[in-house]
Amino acid sequence: MRALALDCDRRETYIGPEEYCRLAISHRELERCDDSVRGLRGLRDPQAQLVYLVDEIVLLKHEPPKPPCRPR
What pTM value is reported for the model? Predict the structure, then answer.
């Protein structure tokens, strides 16, 4: 993924940190599209012409769920 400059003619949708992480590791061809002025991290889907945004502070404070313990 690479960082892109933001363009004005795009659709934006705000998502939570769980969804952002899921999209970031998915097999979809997404591009980074951060907006540092607004404090947002973004992923751009060029095919759908949609940008998924999450607040960067919320994202950086997010802790992924721990896997359940397996009995021995």
Answer: 0.73
